[in-house]
UniProtKB/TrEMBL annotation:
<dbReference type="Pfam" id="PF25967">
    <property type="entry name" value="RND-MFP_C"/>
</dbReference>
<feature type="domain" description="CusB-like beta-barrel">
    <location>
        <begin position="253"/>
        <end position="325"/>
    </location>
</feature>
<dbReference type="InterPro" id="IPR058792">
    <property type="entry name" value="Beta-barrel_RND_2"/>
</dbReference>
<dbReference type="GO" id="GO:1990281">
    <property type="term" value="C:efflux pump complex"/>
</dbReference>
<dbReference type="InterPro" id="IPR058627">
    <property type="entry name" value="MdtA-like_C"/>
</dbReference>
<feature type="domain" description="Multidrug resistance protein MdtA-like C-terminal permuted SH3">
    <location>
        <begin position="340"/>
        <end position="394"/>
    </location>
</feature>
<keyword id="KW-0813">Transport</keyword>
<keyword id="KW-0175">Coiled coil</keyword>
<dbReference type="Pfam" id="PF25954">
    <property type="entry name" value="Beta-barrel_RND_2"/>
</dbReference>
<dbReference type="GO" id="GO:0015562">
    <property type="term" value="F:efflux transmembrane transporter activity"/>
</dbReference>
<keyword id="KW-1133">Transmembrane helix</keyword>
<dbReference type="InterPro" id="IPR058625">
    <property type="entry name" value="MdtA-like_BSH"/>
</dbReference>
<keyword id="KW-0472">Membrane</keyword>
<dbReference type="InterPro" id="IPR006143">
    <property type="entry name" value="RND_pump_MFP"/>
</dbReference>
<dbReference type="Pfam" id="PF25917">
    <property type="entry name" value="BSH_RND"/>
</dbReference>
<feature type="domain" description="Multidrug resistance protein MdtA-like barrel-sandwich hybrid">
    <location>
        <begin position="83"/>
        <end position="229"/>
    </location>
</feature>
<keyword id="KW-0812">Transmembrane</keyword>
Amino acid sequence: MNTNADLLKELRIDRSPGPPPSRKGLWIALGIAAAIVLLAVVGWLLFGRAQPVAVQTATAVSLAAGNASTSVLDASGYVVARRMATVSSKITGRVREVLIEEGMRVEAGQVMATLDPIDADAARELSRSQLAAARSQADGVRAQLTEAESNASRLRSLVDQQLVSRAQYEQAVATRDSLRAQLSTAQRNAQVASDSLRISDIGVDNTIVRAPFAGVVIAKAAQPGEIVSPLSAGGGFTRTGIGTIVDMDSLEVEVDVGESYIGRVQPKMPVEATLNSYPDWKIPAEVIAIIPTADRGKATVKVRVALREKDARIVPDMGVTVSFLEKAPEPDAEPRRGVRVPATALVQRDGGDAVFVVGRENRVELRRVQPGDALGEQREVVSGLAPGETVVLSPPDGLADSDVVGTGTN
């Protein structure tokens, strides 16, 4: 049974310090808050930010001073050489010397390389010796024939006088005729030996590789010590050419024109060519011919274009853009200011003509312009647009100023 003292102890308040409070709940709360913020940022990036508008673009091209003319069709192609050859030797042999380098100009007949002539020289010496032997044999037979003819003539007079038998005379005549046949054979052998020597001389000349026409060397394919052959023999260890030369006067342009537009192109039609490497240089040209066959896979027809100007800057396989013109440009015409863009780049905004110009970070700028004449599928822009600026083709109705676009060159 508890006493009063025990009961009083039970009623006493415990004032000793308790255990420190736990921070686990605080960290859980902070983690939940961070997750909510992260989800909010991701949701804004995925759904809140405006997505770029996919569009096609084109570059504004300056109208050439004095050379501007109405273009009925634009196409792209490449500069090609109608006269180009990889020069090889006519025989198989070891290269002794190469006399060309890339970029070097050669004339027709100029020596490009020489082969080791040991075998050819030996064959020529043998043919020369055979010719000398054949001629010596013919001279010997000719001397014998002279003696036989004299003997036959003398016996003929004696047999008429019945001083020698007719058998002796007939034997002398047979000897004479036999020597005549031997002389004819010896002379033919000498002619054969002479022909063989001439062929051997050609063999020696074949060890010298010459340029078939005047041009510029664009590739050097062999080095001294290598084996060259006119045919591919010996796998990758045998060269089939000494070098490649191009007749720069035969350069022209080949373009592929779509079947739907080939009706706009005519032979002798004036053309303006622009090299991709020199966009400000307009080269006068004209259509040579329309190749009468189509590419089934690409649905195009090849057109040959002749360049009226020759220049060292024009080299094979250069990319080129050509404009087929309605009429030849007038050299003395007044310069035309402005640029030309595809007609689909112009739109109507707020009652006026405008274009969307792509600027930094692919943001578009709605810009008012003053359009000019129609140039086929192109449109002249007199003011408001500078050469080289990028414009949007067929802008969507919802496209607005400062929108971000995803561009694709047309």
